[in-house]
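Anyone opening a protein record will find just a pair of labelled lines. The record below illustrates this layout.
***
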Amino acid sequence: MPEPALTRYDAPPEIGGRPRGVLLMLHGGKPRSQRVVNGRSASWRRSLVMQREIAWNAQALGLSTWLLRHRVAGWNGPADPSPVPDARWALERIRAEYAELPVVLLGHSMGARTAIRVADDPSVVGVVALAPWFPHDEPVHSLGVKPLIAFQGRRDRITSYAETAAFIARAGAGARLVDLGPVGHYMLRARSVWNEAALSAASAMVVETAE
């Protein structure tokens, strides 16, 4: 089994060399698959494109972006979902380098579900979910009182807008859902809209933590 991997864009020296916070990006996947995630994997590459497109603006805000590449492509639960230990591994790597910095989890599809499962980590200050996969029985307790904002389009045919809305309702007052209108699941249409929504929500969570 390969190791998980991280792709990093850290704050450059001219703005202090030390970020104000870290955005940990978690890519999508499949309900069941033992296929190894490599550099050709579409789900990882979609998140890599977003990371590259938001990295400069994130750095200008003093934020680093770390993209996790999972070991295998599937959730493969329910007892021990495959991406969850990978995400906890990544959080430990961030904490080892930036012990006190806030982390916002930025997850697409399965990555959003993974983010909810690891939101109980002490470094995590919030979750941004893009076209999330939130099944009707997905537990909310790991989120606690941390903020969650989900972005999804009603034309999503891969994950359910209605299930996302139901999850947001169960998650409580700190959670909200933003309808992005006529966009699908894979963030191919209106990429700038997805990018702006993701970065603005994540950076706001870091700012709120600092205040």
About this structure: Residues 5-210 form a domain with the Rossmann fold fold (CATH 3.40.50.1820). DSSP finds five helices and seven strands in the chain. Strands lie at 5-9, 21-26, 63-69, 103-108, 124-130, 148-152, 175-179.
